[in-house]
Every structure is written in structure tokens, then in C-alpha cells.
Amino acid sequence: MTGFQLEDVLPLTPLQAGMLFHALYDSDAVDVYTAQFAFTLEGTVDTAALRAAVGTLLRRHANLRVGFLHEDLDEPVQAVAADVPVPLEEHDLTTPDDGRTVEERVRAFLAADRTRRFDLTTPPLMRFSLLRTTPGHHRLVMTSHHILLDGWSMPILVRELFELYAHRGDDLTLPRVTPYRTYLAWLAGQDGAAALDTWRTALAGIEAPTLLAGRGATEAARPDELPETLVLELDAVTSERLRATARAHRLTLNTLVQGAWGLLLSRLTGRDDVLFGTTVSGRPPELPGVESMIGLFINTVPVRLSLRPGETLAELLTRLQDEQGRLLGSQHAGLTEIRATTGLDTLFDTLAVFENYPLDEETLRTARQGLPGLAVTGFEGTDAAHYPLTLTIAPGTALRITFGFRPSALDREETVRTVARMRVLLTALADGLDRRADTVSVLLDGERETLLARG
Q: Which of 203-207, 307-311, 399-403, 441-445 is predicted with the least confidence, judged by mean pLDDT?
């Protein structure tokens, strides 16, 4: 059944099951759920210590040693390998190569690595590549399948990896790992029927999905297609005004951004009752040690925004936040089961991800403490989802929203206008929430005049 010695067999979370489905469905295409992070290193890299660190990391966390099996099984499982080879490769990019610069060779490697699929049946679904770029300079590339771990886990994993490197793979200074199995047991113990009843009530009356790209777009990706990105960055002043508006109305910044996206979807689709997806952290606070666990805890659930005549922005956003609050205890339910309560074959094709715990400079500062003769001076990361459009919201001094879109599903110029309209809406929300929600304009410069000229 497996090509490795079996240590344990675990069930899948709902989101893992969804990711497995998409990997199997698009088996010949680029797997968009392949995530890649590259760290810039300055100094002397001890490759033996790095290999020991990666090996100990995988030994400590059983759920990083899993393969996903489904053939001839009633339900897919994640099979834990007792031991896996250390997935560390070394590449020397300092040698001149067909006229390309070192940075061009790095970019070519990253692009090829990002599109190299994992065989989900064969662990580990994670690989490390050490690229030597110049004497004393390296890039450490960590590539993994999203089915293993989420963004909230990345800072934990990075800190642990570099601490293990500093101690040459010795984990005596690290706390004991709370097994991922503990979370899976908690998940299995939840009242699934009650959660779905809550979702059935929350989605009652939904008559049609909200599809920005139209039907069939999700399945229309080209085999070699990766999402393209556009970035909306509010200036620091507008970002602070937006946060101040949220505080004044006892709303979260997440609620304001979700509300803005829901309003824009309403205008773009011509519907007063819209749905989009969001990612929730999925870490139950009652589970001891959950804040330091590595794994996939997130879940994708619907957000519904329905407009009511005459309702102010403040009233709409307060209602949205209250409705989301009532769903907190039911966010563990699987999206497939949630969708089934509506009788629809799909619900939405856009996703909004709010990054509360991004991999940031603070993580790097913590990670590089005590590293012998080595400095982590920077990083870059890429991941994606299968939806035609994904908004990744990064709070900070300047609010930053990355729009990842599939060019086969959404026209680039139209997506540029969508980004601009989102800026208009967020700026309007920063100005206050007293106006009626159905009167807020999303027109861009010149569009009003064009419409008036057309009569």
C-alpha cells in the first residue's frame, strides 16, 4: 500500500480533502498549492548542521512526514512514514552559465522549483534547496505543499528550523511537540450536525452562487498557469484613518475590508446578496499548545453580505460582524458540507485571506538570534489558491492587499480596474460610515462623465 515504513494513519481535515481533490483533478497542471519561501543568507553555511536541522524538524513533527493515499480506500488518509530521507539539495550557481547573471539563474531555479509537483503519495511533501550565489551568500529555498501546513505555522517552523541549525539538529532547547493528531481528535469530536444547521440558517435564501469570473472559470486553468498578482497599498495616512473608523464603530479592520469586498462584488455582479470565501485560522483556543503547533489548521468558509435598502455603512458592517461572530463555533465545518446545505453546486469564486500572522521581519530577527557566523537578511514567499481571484490582506502601517488572479479566468485590465475600485471603496470607508451603503460609488476617474455623456 505504501513504499515506506508506516508509523501511523491519520484522517484528513476538510481543507486537506479539498486540496487533495484539486491535486488529483488537475494532475497534469501546475499545482497552485505548492508554496515556496526563499531566505537570503550571508556568512558561512554549515551544510551538515542544516541537514541535521531539517532531519530533526521532520522527526519532531509526524505530520510533516505524511503521504496522502486514496486508491481503493473509502476515505483518503494521511499515512505517516516512520522515517524519510532528508530533502536537502545543494546547487552552486556561481559558475557562469550561458551569459545569465546569478540573479537570473536564481529566478530560473525558483520558477522551475515552484512548478515541480510533489507526488502526494510519497513523503516528505517538503524540500529544501541551498543555492550558493556568491562566496558567503546563499539562498535557502523551502518548498512545501500547502496540504501540510498553513501560513500561521510558517513563523513557528522557521524559528524552529534556525534554532535547530544553531544547535546542529539538537532539539533539547525546544519545547515538546503537541502532536497534530491531538487537533484531529478535537476536530473529530465536534458536533458536525449542529455546525451545519448553523450554516444552513446563515445561508438560507441564497439562490445563486457569486461568480466574478463566470461558470467554468475555475476549471479553465492552463496546465502551466500560475496566478499573476496586482498589489493595492493604501498610504499610511489612509490606512490609519481606516483603522480609526473601525475603532470608532467597534469593528475590526477585517470586517471593513470584507465589507468593502462584498460591496464591490455586489456592484460587479449586480447582486444584492453575495458570497465570497474567507480563510479562518482554525486553531481552537481550548486545545493546549495549539499556538505553537505546525500543521494545516485553516479552513475556508463562506462570507455572506446582503444589502438592505436604506442601511448605512455602519449598520451593514455591524450586522456583517455580528453574523460572522455567530458562526465562530461552526467554522470547522467542511466547505463541501456547507455548500450542500444550500442545494447549490458551488458558492463563490473569490477568496479573501486576512494575514494576522505573516512571516515578517520580527520572525527573522527571532530566527537569526544565536546563529553562528550566519545572518538571515531577507526572504520572499509565494503561494496561491485555485480560485480565479484571491485577495491576501496584510495589515500594517500601510494596508496592503495582493490580488492573485488567474489570467485564463480574469482579464488583466479588468482586474486592474477592480483593484482601483477597491481602493475607492476603502478610501470611502476611511471617510466615515454614516452614508447609505447603496449610494457609495465605485466609479473611477472619468467613468461618471462617460456615463453621463451616454445618457
A: 441-445
Please state which CATH number belongs to domain 7-182. 3.30.559.10
Superfamily of domain 191-355+382-454 in the CATH hierarchy: Nonribosomal peptide synthetase, condensation domain (3.30.559.30)
Residue ranges per domain, the chain? 7-182, 191-355+382-454
What are the CA-CA distances from residue 173 to residues 86, 167, 176 (Å)? 21, 9, 9
Strands 350-354 and 77-81: unpaired
pLDDT digits (tens, 9 = 90+) for 42-57: 999 999 999 999 999 9
CB 320 within 8 A of CB 307: no
What would the mean pLDDT of 139-148 be, rounded to a whole number? 96
**How far is the C-alpha of 122 from the C-alpha of 107, rounded, in Å?**
27
Host H or E run for residue 448: helix 447-454
Same fold for the pair 7-182 and 191-355+382-454: yes
Phi, psi of 295 (to 5 degrees): 160, -170
Q: Measured between alpha carbons, how far is 294 from 296 in angstroms, rounded to an integer?
A: 7
DSSP characters over 315-379? HHHHHHHHHHHHTGGGTTS-HHHHHHTTT-S--BSEEEEE-SS---HHHHHHHTTT-TTEEEEEE
CA distances from 158 to 66, 142, 154, 312, 425 (A): 19, 10, 6, 44, 36
From residue 78, give the alpha-carbon distance in Å to each of 249, 297, 322.
Answer: 45, 15, 37
Q: How many CA atoms lie within 13 A of 340 on its CB side?
A: 9
Residue 284 near residue 304, CB atoms below 8 Å = no
**CA–CA dist 417, 294 (Å, integer):** 38
- Give the amino acid at 286: E
For residue 441, the tally of other CB atoms under 10 A from its CB is 12
d(Cα 45, Cα 127) in Å, to the nearest integer?
Answer: 18
Q: Report pLDDT digits (tens) over 227-240.
A: 899 999 999 999 99
Q: Which of 102-111, 262-271, 374-383 has the highest mean pLDDT?
A: 262-271
Q: Are strands 88-92 and 126-134 parallel, antiparallel or unpaired?
A: parallel
Q: Are 157 and 118 in contact (CB under 8 A)?
A: no
**Preceding amide of 124 cis, omega within 30:** yes
